[in-house]
Amino acid sequence: QVQLVESGGGLVQAGGSLRLSCAASRSIFSINAMGWYRQVPGKQRELVAVISRGGSTNYADSVKGRFTISRDSAKNTVYLQMNSLKPEDTAVYYCNARRELGTPPSDYWGQGTQVTVSS
Predict the structure, then answer these.
(1) What are residue 13's DSSP bridge partners?
(2) Alpha-carbon torsion 12, 17, 41, 61, what sign?
(3) Are strands 4-7 and 10-13 parallel, antiparallel or unpaired?
(4) Whether residue 117 has pLDDT greater than 90
């Protein structure tokens, strides 16, 4: 089991920045990948950014160059630095942890944190 606690959401003007944090209940090196997803009402949850256990990262095209995912292994925490925010970034952001112990893999989710970008 992995418990995830997110923080850092809020209201910001377009062009501003926010940093989201996701604290895991176990070592992030026991987790195959951690990522951030977002969801708006009526739409599917979409991947924003992911970081693998080995440190490789991947981003949605819509956030490349603006968002950065990183981690602090000593704190078992993953971050999402969001710069140059746009109104279309408004969503509930969810932290995800994936453990590939079998088939299918096990996905764990945080409670979600609201990000609202005003124009």
Answers:
(1) 118
(2) positive
(3) unpaired
(4) yes
Express each pLDDT in 1-18 by its tens digit: 899 999 999 999 999 999
DSSP secondary structure string for all residues of 25-88 = SS-GGGSSEEEEEEE-TTS--EEEEEEETTS-EEE-GGGTTTEEEEEEGGGTEEEEEE-S--GG
Residue range 72-114, pLDDT digits in tens: 999 999 999 999 999 999 999 999 999 988 889 999 999 999 9
Q: Are the CB atoms for 49 and 80 separated by under 8 Å?
A: yes
Query: Within 10 Å of residue 69's Cβ, how many Cβ atoms?
Result: 21
Cα separation, 88 vs 7, in Å, equals 20
Residue type, 85: L
Token pair in block for residue 24 = 């895991």
Size of the chain, expressed as the number of residues it contains: 119
Smallest CA-to-CA distance from 70 within 62, 61, 82 is with: 82
